[in-house]
Amino acid sequence: MFGQLGLADDAAAVYAALLAEPSLTLADLVTHTRLPERTVRKILDQLADLHLVEQSATGDHQLVLIPPGHALSGLLAQAQADLKRREAGLEQARAEIVAMTDGRQRHGDTVTRLDGVDAVRGRLRVLSGLARFEVCSFSPGGAHRLDAMSESRPLNQDLLARHIAIRAIYQDACRNDQETLEYATWMTSRGASLRTVPVVPLQLVLVDRTVAIVPISAAEPRVGALEVRNLSIVTVVSALFEQVWQNATPLGEQPPRRRNGLRPQEHQILVLLAGGGTDEMIARRMGVSVRTVRRTVADLTERLNASSRFQAGLQASRAGWL
Question: What CA–CA distance (Å, rounded) separates 21 from 16?
Answer without folding.
Answer: 9
